Each structure stands twice: as C-alpha cells, then as structure tokens.
Amino acid sequence: MEKPEKVFIGEDGFWSKWFSKLLFTLISVKVWGLVAGTWISTYLLLNQKVIDIGGKTFELSFSSTQWVTFNTTIWALIFGMKEVFRISEKRDKNEKAALDKRLETKEKVAAMIQAPNHPSTVKVNTDGTETVGSEPD
Q1: pLDDT tens-digit series, residues 44-68
Q2: In terms of DSSP bridges, do strands 130-132 and 122-124 run parallel, antiparallel, or are they unpaired?
Q3: Which parts pass through the membrane (predicted)?
Q4: 128 lies in a domain?
C-alpha cells in the first residue's frame, strides 16, 4: 500500500483534503465521546445540586477533584488506545513487509532453479529411477 502523499498549504487539493480530514475526525466516535464527557462533567461541576430524600442527602454534581479525575481518565484512555492501535498498525506493516521480502526471495530462488542453465538436482537414471540431490560428477 502506498503512503498518501503530503500536500502543503497553497498546493492544489490542500483545502479539500483538510476539509475531508476534519469531517472524518468530527464523525469519529472518540471525538464525540470526548466532547460529551467533557460537556457533561463541566455541566455537573457548574450546577451544584443537593437533594434530600428520606433524610439522606444526595449530591447531583461533581466536585473539582472529581471533574479533573474523570476528564483526565477519559482523555488518557482514548488517546492511549489511539497510540496502542497506531503501534499495532506499524507492527503489522513491518510484519507484512518482512513476509513480502521473504516471498520475493523465494520467488527469485525458484526462478533461478527453473532457469535453463541451472543444473537440475534431480537426475533420471537409465533404469528409470530418480536420484535427488546427488553429488556432482
């Protein structure tokens, strides 16, 4: 697979590629997860509510410590997984490249063996039997 070529500001196609990248990013689930999590936690931080039900007090909000803990945890998980997937993708590409190189080597060896000037490793004897890998005469 070819690497996408980089386009710089001012070159043809830059803004269309930039806009499509922006749209794909906005469609991404992780972006919406970060936006929603940050918005809800901020709402809960700014709107402090306490209710009393049957003599028990319930806090329907976040403290500043809870807000920081929640947001840093969510952001770290999402961006940490992004890095894990990036590393995994790079490893897969390296393994594929190694397998492709190994296959190319095998094809070259097979082509050399099939070449008309390559001595055959299988000899047919006069009685019809075959000798495989015999010493040269």
Answers
A1: 999 988 899 999 998 889 999 999 9
A2: antiparallel
A3: 22-46
A4: no
